Every structure is written in structure tokens, then in C-alpha cells.
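Hi all, posting the design record for the shared folder.

TITLE: backbone redesign
STEP: 1 of 1
STRUCTURE INPUT:
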């Protein structure tokens, strides 16, 4: 035995101290058996009540009870009237901070955190709810897009015409003054694949007022109309006001926010993009986003230069040289001439790997991009002067190998295997899930499925399941895939749908008041660690039309906080159960109110 002082006692313990301790242990053991018998006799009587009660009130250690996030109510001030067309990341007030080389000032340049607006963007004085589809394709309210400059500049080309309180869209354009219908008819004669469902997705660079994309909707072709933000023309705003898919963007120094090998067709009708300059780097970007077998259509300079050069303020020799340079660049990128007539020339991107193999030879321009450059990396990714070669193993992603529309929507694309967990069965399960959800949504929001809702955005899609579930309704869906999420956007395009990459910590590339319905599924659960919920909801308010809707599907943890912020946005919301009534997930159905600025005469 060791004492506190560290010394040992050499004498043994006396045995009389052990006996009482032994007796004490025996007594305690007997008493414990007695108590155990009492407990066991009561177990059967209490089991049906006590255990049942505990199972209801005590949370599993694996799923600890978490109180819902609570946020104090807040009210947002109105922005001043000069912010009625505010586009935070393409703001003309900030253009002078950036260079003019290759029009870099027109690219996305988002304001730093300290300069972000925390106010509600007002509608223009006299704003009215937009004219409903399909009538909206041909007319819109002048006060909703009050830009008369474009009417004066383009009236001789029949882009649009102001008549009373409305803008009318006759369907004209710089290269189709006789009407877009006749122009597309000729194009279909040159490209029969536009008639049979082979061509489904298209991009129109420099879209004007999107008459080309609007006409193609009736022909089963879904077009992303692309144009930069500008001070006067507001091309993308006109397109969206008409109910035609469009997004702000420009081919400059960065890749467009789309995956490689996505569009079935690309179109430029005198879009003023200098295709042959800077080593053809803009053509290389078109090549990247166009799928093998896809078509590039050009009308305008230098096509048909023999008959048109006099109206282009140039000489026939200059235009001939430019056309030959263009042909040389396209050939070097594995394009081949497909058809040509009058003002329209069509090239087709090759699906033949033998052409691309030649790009690996020394001293070839443009060269093949090295493997370190991810083909689908397209969020603030610089353009590179090299050819993104289609992967040889993806043999079913070429245009001629895809099922024709509408069968294409239901077939699992080859590229789904590149998605973690992606498979044919996963896509089938996702589609089935969204059919059930869409049916439930229509019960909660009867406007969904009617012409009251035309422009729809799925803010964080996976495979485009929501868009597929409402494909027969009179609407179109912009499918957004987070730049931080798994890369599923190629699957969306392979199915014949459209979409874009985006980071919801920043403003979206569109004008205010351009969407009728915003849908999200767990966006705040996925992104709240990066993005401030308040700014995401302010951005949703900016792009949502007055009297438009937000369908917010979220964890129960976030729902109350979202509703609190939505109240400060002047939204009216009601909380609903999901289709299966699970407690951990809820729906918030909100509608944005129509209000006018305090200085507006419309109040």
C-alpha cells in the first residue's frame, strides 16, 4: 500500500477489516436482484405505454432535433427610378472601369460585396402585366420596355414598330426584311434536319429582338437568344418580354456559360462578330459549344459578297479576302461546307475523328487543346486559341446519333455516365419523381400550365426533370446548374432542353422583370454556406415579374427564414406540404406584388 508521502507500509492489513466489507457486498447484490424482480414484473404493463411515448418524444441520436432557422423581419427600401433596368453584373455605369479591347467591358463584372444593392428594383412608370403568350410574340406594352431608339433605328428593317401603347413585331430583321418566316423556310430547305426533329436546340448570337428564335418555336426548335447588355437596344429584354428564351452574354475573352458539344445549331445573322479576327478565337468558341454534326449558319458579311459588298461600305476585294479567310479557318477547325444559297451559308461540324487527329501534328493552327483544359469548364473561363476535340468514346452524342425530338427527351443520354451516380435508371427515377411533383404543384398553383406562366426558371436543376414534366405546357424553362454542383448540364442539352451555368452568389445575366415563375429545390440547403440568403432572394425579386410566382421547395429548417425575408420583399406567401407530406421538407408558394415607385405617376 502506498501512502500520500510515497512511502510503503511494511506491515500487512489486519484481517478483521475484510469481513464487514464482504458482508456488505453480499447484501447489496441481493437487494439489487430484488429491485430487478420488481422492475421485470412491471415491464409488460408499462411497455405498451412508456416505450411508445419515448419513441415519439426522444429523437434518434443519428437525427438530432434542430430548431428552424429564425431571422428577424426586415423591410427593403425601393431603389431609385434610374435602377428600373438594373443588371448588376453588366451595369453600364461600371463600363468605364474595364477595357474596350474585344469588348471586355460588356462581359460579366459583378460589384464587390460592399457595393451590392439592398433595395427593390421598381418597374417603369406605367408598367402593366405582360401580354400573354402566344399573342406576346407579336406585341408588347411600350411602357414595359420604353426604348424608342431601336424603333427609330430599325424601322426600315421591320424589327419592330411602335403603334399606340404597344410595340409590334412584324418579324423582320437586317437579313430578312421580307419576314423571318420566309428566311427560316429557305434555311429549312438547306438543312432538312430542321424539319424532322433532328435539330432541337439552337443558339442565336447577336439575336436582335429574337424573331428568329421566336419563329423556330413553332417548328419544334428551342433557341437561346444571346446578346450583350446595351444602353438603347435592350435586345434580350425585348426577347423575354415577348416570351422567347434569351440571356445576356457576349463572345469576348471568356467562354459562354454552356457546356461543350451542346447546341445542335448556331446562327449569326449579321451579328457583327469579327469571326476572322484574333486568330478565329470566336469561331473556336462556337465550335466548342456546337455538338459534332451540328450546323453553323451565317447570313450577312462576307456571305454573298459578290452581290452585297456595295451596301457594306467596303470593296469586293476586301470581302472576297475575308470570305476566303473565313473558309480557311472553318476548314482548319473541322467544319465543312454543307449548303449555300443567296445570303445563307451553312457549315457542319465534323464527327470524323480523323480530321481532329491531324490537329495534333506540329505547327498546326489552331492546335488541339491539351487535356488539362476541361471542355465543359465555362464559368469565368478564358477563351483559348485551340480546338476542343470531341471525346472519341462519346459516339452517341453526335447529332446524327441522338434520337429525334421528342423521343430524345425520354432517352438517357450517353453523357449521364459522367455524372456521379448517373445512369439510365437514375434518370427514369428522376423523371417519375418530377411528374408527381409537377402534378402537386399545379394543385397548389393553378396558373401553372396556363398561359399566365410563360417564362420559367428552374434555379438548380439536376437532369431537367421539372422542365421535362411540364414540357407540354405553354411555357419554356431555363435550366440552371450551379457552377459548384455536379456537371449535369450536358445531360440537359442532350435531352433537348436548354440551360446555363450560374453561381447564385452573383446576379443572373438577365434584365429585371423577365420571369413568370422561379422554381428552386433545396437551393439554400446546398448553397447557404457560400451565398447570403438575403441577396439570393433580392436577386429573385429583381428578375421576377410583378404578379409572378416563386415555388420554393426547401428544408423545414430554412422555410420560416425564407418567408420572413419574402415578407420584406412585399411577396405574399403560403406554406404547403410536399406531395408526400414529409415533415423535413416544405413548399413555400409566393407571389410578387405589383407596386410602383413612390415618385411614379402610376401609383
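Okay, here is what came back for every position:
SEQUENCE:
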Amino acid at each position: 500500500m502506498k501512502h500520500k508521502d510515497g512511502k510503503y507500509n511494511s506491515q500487512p492489513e489486519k484481517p478483521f477489516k475484510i469481513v464487514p466489507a464482504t458482508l456488505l457486498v453480499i447484501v447489496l447484490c441481493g437487494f439489487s436482484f430484488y429491485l430487478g424482480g420488481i422492475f421485470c414484473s412491471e415491464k409488460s404493463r408499462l411497455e405498451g405505454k412508456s416505450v411508445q411515448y419515448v419513441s415519439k418524444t426522444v429523437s434518434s441520436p443519428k437525427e438530432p432535433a434542430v430548431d428552424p432557422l429564425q431571422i428577424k423581419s426586415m423591410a427593403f427600401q425601393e431603389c431609385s427610378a434610374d435602377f428600373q433596368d438594373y443588371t448588376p453584373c453588366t451595369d453600364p455605369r461600371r463600363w468605364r472601369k474595364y477595357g474596350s479591347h474585344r469588348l471586355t467591358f460588356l462581359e460579366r463584372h459583378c460589384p464587390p460585396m460592399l457595393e451590392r444593392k439592398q433595395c427593390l428594383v421598381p418597374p417603369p412608370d406605367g408598367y402593366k402585366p405582360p401580354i400573354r403568350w402566344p399573342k406576346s410574340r407579336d406585341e408588347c406594352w411600350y411602357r414595359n420596355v420604353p426604348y424608342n431608339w431601336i424603333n427609330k433605328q430599325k424601322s426600315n428593317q421591320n424589327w419592330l414598330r411602335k403603334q399606340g401603347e404597344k410595340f409590334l413585331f412584324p418579324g423582320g430583321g437586317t437579313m430578312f426584311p421580307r419576314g423571318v418566316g420566309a428566311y427560316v423556310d429557305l434555311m429549312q430547305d438547306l438543312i432538312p434536319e430542321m424539319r424532322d426533329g433532328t435539330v432541337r436546340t439552337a443558339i442565336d448570337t447577336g439575336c436582335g429582338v429574337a424573331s428568329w428564335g421566336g419563329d423556330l418555336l413553332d417548328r419544334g426548335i428551342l433557341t437561346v437568344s444571346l446578346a450583350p447588355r446595351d444602353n438603347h437596344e435592350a435586345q434580350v429584354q425585348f426577347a423575354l418580354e415577348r416570351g422567347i428564351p434569351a440571356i445576356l452574354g457576349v463572345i469576348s475573352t471568356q467562354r459562354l456559360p454552356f457546356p461543350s458539344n451542346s447546341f445542335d445549331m448556331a446562327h449569326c445573322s449579321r451579328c457583327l462578330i469579327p469571326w476572322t479576327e484574333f486568330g478565329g478565337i470566336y469561331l473556336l468558341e462556337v465550335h466548342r459549344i456546337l455538338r459534332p454534326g451540328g450546323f453553323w449558319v451565317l447570313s450577312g458579311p462576307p456571305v454573298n459578297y459578290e452581290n452585297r459588298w456595295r451596301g457594306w461600305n467596303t470593296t469586293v476585294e476586301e470581302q472576297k479576302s475575308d470570305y476566303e479567310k473565313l473558309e480557311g479557318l472553318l476548314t482548319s477547325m473541322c467544319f465543312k461546307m454543307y449548303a449555300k444559297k443567296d445570303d445563307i451559308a451553312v457549315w457542319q461540324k465534323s464527327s470524323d475523328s480523323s480530321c481532329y487527329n491531324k490537329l495534333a501534328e506540329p505547327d498546326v493552327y489552331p492546335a488541339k487543346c491539351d487535356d488539362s483544359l476541361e471542355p465543359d469548364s465555362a464559368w469565368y473561363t478564358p477563351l483559348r486559341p485551340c480546338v476542343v476535340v470531341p471525346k472519341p468514346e462519346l459516339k452517341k452524342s453526335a447529332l446524327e446519333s441522338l434520337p429525334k425530338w421528342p423521343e430524345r427527351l425520354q432517352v438517357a443520354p450517353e453523357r449521364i455516365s459522367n455524372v456521379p451516380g448517373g445512369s439510365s435508371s437514375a434518370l427514369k427515377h428522376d423523371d417519375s419523381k418530377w411528374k408527381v411533383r409537377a402534378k402537386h404543384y399545379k394543385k397548389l398553383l393553378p396558373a401553372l400550365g396556363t398561359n399566365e406562366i410563360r417564362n420559367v426558371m428552374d434555379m438548380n436543376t439536376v437532369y431537367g426533370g421539372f422542365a421535362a414534366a411540364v414540357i407540354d405546357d405553354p411555357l419554356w424553362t431555363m435550366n440552371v446548374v450551379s457552377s459548384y454542383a455536379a456537371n449535369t448540364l450536358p445531360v440537359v442539352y442532350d435531352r433537348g432542353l436548354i440551360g446555363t451555368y450560374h453561381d447564385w452568389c452573383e446576379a443572373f445575366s438577365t434584365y429585371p422583370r423577365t420571369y413568370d415563375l422561379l422554381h428552386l429545390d433545396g437551393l439554400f440547403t446546398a448553397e447557404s454556406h457560400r451565398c447570403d440568403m438575403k441577396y439570393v432572394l433580392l436577386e429573385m425579386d429583381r428578375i421576377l415579374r410583378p404578379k409572378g410566382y416563386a415555388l420554393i421547395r426547401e428544408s423545414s429548417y430554412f422555410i420560416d427564414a425564407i418567408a420572413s425575408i419574402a415578407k420584406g420583399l412585399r411577396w405574399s406567401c403560403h406554406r404547403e406540404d410536399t406531395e408526400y407530406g414529409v415533415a423535413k421538407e416544405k413548399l413555400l408558394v409566393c407571389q410578387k406584388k405589383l407596386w410602383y415607385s413612390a415618385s411614379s405617376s402610376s401609383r
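COMMENT: DSSP finds 15 helices and 21 strands in the chain.
Let me know if anyone wants the other runs.
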